[in-house]
Write a structure and sequence with these properties.
This protein is mainly beta. It is built from 9 helices and 34 strands.
Length: 489
Amino acid sequence: MAATDAGTWGDVVVAGIALALPLAALREVLPRGALAALPCDHAAVLGAMPVRGVSVPVIDLGLMLGRSPAAPAPFVLFVVHGSRLLGLACDAVNGVFAAAANSRSATRNVDSRAGHLFDGSVRRADNAALVNLLSVDALAAMPGIPWIVDPEPERQLGADADSGAAGAVETPVRSLMLLHAGRVRLAIDANAVEATLWQPRLTSSVLAQGACRGVLDFGTRRIGAIDLVALCRLHAQAGSGSRQAIVLRHAQGLVALLVERVVEIVRVPAVDIVGGTLFGLPQPELFEGMFRDATWGEHLILNAAALGAHPELEALAATNTDSGTAQQQHGETRKGKAQALITLRLPQEVAVPIDQVDEVLPFGGVDGMFGPDTVLRRVQQLRGRVVPVICLARLLGWHPGSASPSAAVLVVRAGEQWIGFATPRMDSIEHSDWRRRLPASDGAPGVAAQVAQREIVSVGAPGAERTLRLVDLQALAEALLSEGDRLVA
């Protein structure tokens, strides 16, 4: 690869080292299964893993570099070199990235030892971070490593595009990540994927509505997780297999898309992709065409741009919060039992207890049923019950401003009555282990404002704490019912 052509790379963690490999060298990644012993005396060879009827040798790069692994790597990354195939024990695969133009710095080390595996660095185009490169050429040249003949060479389409014969006409190639869920076969541009999560731990959340199934931890963030097949309305049940996820970056934040299986990344000649509107699908605008993979069959290609602009993804991306992982890594602990809160913008930032919210409804519907500036915005039905929807900002004496993509209605139960509090922007889920009750204010303009001013809480990571008003929605709903306040002027 020429130094001026930074190219596209796979972002992986091997032997505890964050590295990048040329996308053309990556075949697929699979969970590590049982390895069969091989008649090979190389210290780095762990054994052979069966893959579609072929035993592929697997090596541990850490053993080659003198690094003893604390635990077996959970994945195997399969790489190709020419017509040969090899498996690398792999800690994580974080997707692919495009490198900044002219950012490739190559080494000129001719030593044949393991140190030669270092092949310089590239700078990521998205966040300007430097990533060290692993030389597949140097790995292939090392004696004693048992590569096998690639049993499926046709799957490495375009693998030699960078070093083609002089005068050859280059064919445009796209890198697609294959995603399976039940009978549905999907593909998405691999460059749009921020990361791949192979064993995400999904936890319940008040955000779980529509296609959202809850939240999961990604690095130091807690992000919303959407069932991709349900979002596309392809069918209600995607299947009961193990769930994996991909992470997309949105202007508002990150969001995870749940599938049953992330299969592999393939390089596909652009001429093999059939474009056009997929007539008959519930949401054809989310797709750009289809293609047929020689091994996995027909795949619908998702339109990454249209997917990123979907209102449900926009709303969830805006709710990213700190998962607490960073504080735990630094040995910090919370005092007592932390309370989970939802932070809102009314337009001032406030917090509400998450355990008081029975349900989250879409913000849409008839708004201003009783006038443009009334506190009571509308009355609607919810499972056989009448729910008054109240503008929380107006109730507390503020003007709400325009609704954001994360606007919602928080439903709270007060006795036998349900009350919905409309909020123009729902920011995030955070935790607080500190709260303080304030003395009652004689100047508060009504029972609602008095209830809202009784407590403050501290939220945010150490060094970036914020002190917010705690709005007790339960007490607020009960006060409204007991006082019988008129909410329509």
